[in-house]
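Response to reviewer comment R2.3. The reviewers asked that we include at least one raw input/output pair. We reproduce the pair for Aminoglycoside N(3)-acetyltransferase here without editing.
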Amino acid sequence: MLSFRDLVSGFRKLNLDPQQPVMVHASFSSFGEDVRGGAETLLGALLATSNALIAPTFTYKTMVIPSDGPPDNGITYGSGKESNLMAEFYRSTMPADRLMGIFAETLRLHPNAERSSHPILSFSAINLDDALQAQTLQDPLAPIRVLAQKQAWIMLIGVDHTVNTAIHFAEKLAGRKQFLRWALTAQGVVECPGFPGCSNGFQDAEEWLSGITQSVKIGEALIEVLPLQPMLNLLTEKIKEDPLALLCNSSNCERCSAVWSGVTKMVENS
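Raw output as returned:
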């Protein structure tokens, strides 16, 4: 069984400056054995090695699909008749989607944590109020910009780059197409622009990022950390060089297909 001390010892091997924030993506089950105290122990160990933490606490249950909308939006309008009936009103106390993992929800529930108010793409954080406050409906990825300015790190605990939310910000910086989505709120259905694309192809970035990645194993979990700003710089240039980089290979992916279509039209018109 892994203890608090085991986790702290492992994280300290990464030699991170505790003054630099960390965005955490974690699969708690990846440790492969019980952690004494559960996800709360993991959070406590991270707080023992970093003064500021943040994690995505997205809430996809609020999303609805209208019957029509703007073209080339990576969505099939009118396909949400059944799912729309199951949509939930966003509230600040709504649990993070299960896809975010138990760690994200544990962070959200911490007494010192705050949460941004985006009805789909909220973040929860400790000691990062300015990053949370930077987020707006029009700019949902703004917290990542603030984190980059603070020389933050990305930490992947037993997960790969397909859950690395910050790569979406590199896509935006490179000029890649963003999307419009809709969320159910107490004020009614609201438009949420700047919704990112598909992340299923992001693991292709692993080779490019190997030179700036540090890693350590704790139990069976591989912990990887990357400096956020250098990661953004590198991936932004890669996507500018190849506008199709990091897209997934599924012919059924509506968002990646929309990006492909847009790139094809640009080439044909050039």
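The beta strands are 22-26, 53-56, 63-64, 113-115, 123-126, 153-157, 179-185, 188-195, 214-218, 221-227. The chain has ten helices and ten strands. Further pairs are available on request from the corresponding author.
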